[in-house]
Amino acid sequence: MSTICYLPWIFQAVRNNGHVRVCCQANQGPDRGLIRKDDGTIYNAATDNLDEARNAKKMKDIRKDMINGKWHPDCIRCEKEEASGIRSRLTYEKELWQHYISEDEIIKRTSDDGSIDIDKMPVVYYDLRFGNLCNLKCRICSPTDSDAWYEEHFKMGKTGFNDTTGRLQIIESNGKYKLTTPTFTWYESEYFWNYMKEKIPHILHVHTVGGEPLLIKQHFKFLEKCIESNQSQNMRIEYNSNITVLSDKILELWKSFKMIAIGASVDSIYKINDYIRYPSKWSLVENNLLKLDNSPDNIRIWIACTVSIYNILYLPKMFEWKVKQNFNKVNNNNWQSLMSTHPLHAPHFLNIKVLPIEVKEKIKEYFKNYEFDDSFNKYQLKEAKTLLEKYTNFMVQEDYSHMLNEFWDFNNKVDALREETLEDNLPELYSLIKHTKDQ
Fold first, then answer.
1. What's this model's pTM, rounded to 2 decimal places?
2. The domain containing residue 303 runs over which residues?
């Protein structure tokens, strides 16, 4: 397969602390995909020239490797997913942008050293992470991506955590928990917004996460600026959202855009959802899915399921739930009608590769023999079986079982703070792995 991904030519990504990176998948690379200046410091959107970052050494090296058919080290996540048969970001971004630019054009516009003329190839696609303000503290998340995690992280004896800016310290003051350094407020920079105002006429697509993006006030202001410029009618705004905070204001703003695309972060159903994505409530998530399923025509919605140790065993039941809903537009697309799934890569102790070999074999056998009911048509049945096979392949690709003690230590501490247990909420999984608890 071609290793050319269109992103290094038409795209720019900003972490939730303002650091510029190749893309979010490159977070699994040796330097987390960070774009550095010649002196080694990391470009930051709050203060630095984002145009200059587009021809930084790493960006040039990645373009050269892609054109020469090589996987760059920062592209390890897509490389592993493609090797397992999982549809990686490289594949779906290529499908999304093939109407805009071709591989031949990309090669023609790239100099021998990997640089490009940024005026002739403007950024049309941004990935902007507006801080880490969030209302949930999902088990598969961390303080880096959710400030709601600060309190429990602190109470677990971890008074700090590592970020690409360095070691960040959490302090408690009057019953509230915060960082000693306001690292995740980069998007309040006037310099950045003046820069973006100039770029709006070229923008066709913005992907925004957070934190929870629907809580970020500056994100609303950005949408308003796009509407004022009349560019919104040409723009697609894409979200990863936990869809627990749908306001009337955001629904009204969305009407002015060409397309709103929402990847609803839903990892399972009923109490399994509530256990993984604490303290969300399934009834609210389900109601908001239904609301979006009956929203205006310019809104597209799909379930974005992160596959981890917590939900791998429950995927067949989740597929069955999805099919029985008969949604109008949720995952109403040509390439994945059930849901959009992607494997959790880090932390390794929550990755499905952490399961011991005997458990992997049992899950593999369970998937192989699972009989889906007659609510599935033949296409949905094929897709369900194919997804289970792909995640089986990914699961056995590597062995992280030496990290099971880390899983139990982490999970037991979180259970104690939340007064819940793995055994009560995920009894089937607990039964499969309980024998590893004291190893």
1. 0.91
2. 242-436
